Amino acid sequence: MKKRVLIVIAILAVFLFFRLALAQKVKTVDGITVVSNGKKPVPVKGQPAKIKLAEELTIGGGSNPDQAFSQVGTFVVDEGGSILALDFKDQKIKVFDSTGKFLRLIGKPGQGPGELGMASGIQLMTDNTLVVEDATNRRLALFKPTGEFLKNISMADKLGLVNILLDGKGNAMGREMGLVEGNAKMFFEIKKFDPDLKPLFTLDKIEFPIPVPGSGTKINILEMISAYQFDPAGNIYYGRNADYEIKIYSPEGKHIRTIQKEYDRVKVTQTDIDEMLERIPNATPGVNIKEMFSFPEYFPPFQFFLLDDQGRLYVRTFTKGKAKGEYEIDVFDPEGKFIAQFITKSDLRLWKAGKAYGIEETDEGYQVIKRYAVLTE
């Protein structure tokens, strides 16, 4: 009898474990809604339980240098489905229509009006104005969709402002660099700015050492990972890498919701380190840049996240699939409930109008942008 009781208790314990792994809990803490998710997705009425991607279009292949990509920095898609992609190595913005036909190049090197020093990112405003981050000239360059130059917005009063993201009203999120007193460390402040790049508020501050050559000081780039996105209402989704936790702020900067998820940690292998170091350019003669980086024992919970126009959240994790380059994507509904999971090798960067867009590498080592139809069940 006692043995049977122990068996029943063991079965109940296993059942409880799986129930907890699937659990979704919603509570309010200090006026903030906290959505806690287990490791497995839970079906939610009205939301997809399965997501598949069906390839529709590939751009960037071929031998024409104006149409091929050396290294895709960022890309955007306008309301008509045209794709504008910044080739970071070529320092050209290449424009394709929704069928993949090459249309034009935007920008040319230089410091004058309409010229670019080092373009590091691009964004589209609601009127399809193209905004280009020009790191060397420390400004934003604005162009018409046809490529005609409009104006520059100076960033000369900032030590460095990068990774700019725009909302529907022209406000921006970005990482502004600064020096800690004593100049031994630097920091990124995650800030929101108005359309003229005047600071509105700061969400976070990330400090890191300055890896001076020969000093032995190293920087752990994985510990600096953070991501942010605007939703259509102008709310800000922000996440650091310490925990699987994404915080949502109102347009005014008030913390209103937190999305959490349990996860299994992924160990950083020597192969992972070698692959990451391989991607780091060694642009300073006589200095081995790669010796200035260190790596943790485990990867952070996630790499980055994206929002679609339905309010669903897609989180690219460090959990690998079976094939090389595959990673798991966690999908959350607009309330923050974990509803689905799928694996893809595409470096997905955009979800729009039922389509997903990502960067992939061909067998020959060239980068292309692919568009997928998003199939749900």
SSE diagram, text form:
Elements: H1 2-22, E1 24-29, E2 32-37, E3 51-59, E4 72-77, E5 83-87, E6 92-96, E7 102-106, E8 108-109, E9 115-116, E10 119-124, E11 130-134, E12 139-143, E13 149-154, E14 161-166, E15 172-179, E16 185-193, E17 199-209, E18 226-230, E19 236-240, E20 245-249, E21 255-261, H2 270-278, E22 302-307, E23 313-320, E24 327-332, E25 338-344, E26 347-352, E27 355-361, E28 367-376
Parallel strand pairs: 2-21, 8-9
Antiparallel strand pairs: 1-2, 3-28, 4-5, 5-6, 6-7, 10-11, 11-12, 12-13, 14-15, 15-16, 16-17, 18-19, 19-20, 20-21, 22-23, 23-24, 24-25, 26-27, 27-28
Descriptive tags:
377 residues, mainly beta, 6-stranded mixed β-sheet, 4-stranded antiparallel β-sheet, 2 helices
Provide the number of structural domains: 1
- The CATH architecture name reads 6 Propeller
The helix tally amounts to 2
**What best-fitting shape do the alpha-carbon axes yield?**
globular
How many angstroms separate the termini? 46 Å
Which strands sit side by side, in order, in the main sheet? Answer: 1-2-21-20-19-18
Average pLDDT, all residues: 88
The overall strand count is 28
Order of helices and strands: HEEEEEEEEEEEEEEEEEEEEEHEEEEEEE
Q: Over the alpha carbons, how many angstroms does the gyration radius reach?
A: 22 Å
Tell me briefly what this model is:
The protein has 377 residues and is mainly β.
Describe this structure in words.
The structure is a single chain. By secondary structure, the chain is mainly beta. The chain has one domain (27-376): 6 Propeller (Neuraminidase), CATH 2.120.10. It has two helices and 28 strands. The chain has helices at residues 2-22, 270-278; strands spanning 24-29, 32-37, 51-59, 72-77, 83-87, 92-96, 102-106, 108-109, 115-116, 119-124, 130-134, 139-143, 149-154, 161-166, 172-179, 185-193, 199-209, 226-230, 236-240, 245-249, 255-261, 302-307, 313-320, 327-332, 338-344, 347-352, 355-361, 367-376. The longest helix has 21 residues, at 2-22. The radius of gyration is 22 Å and the shape is globular. 27% of the residues are buried.
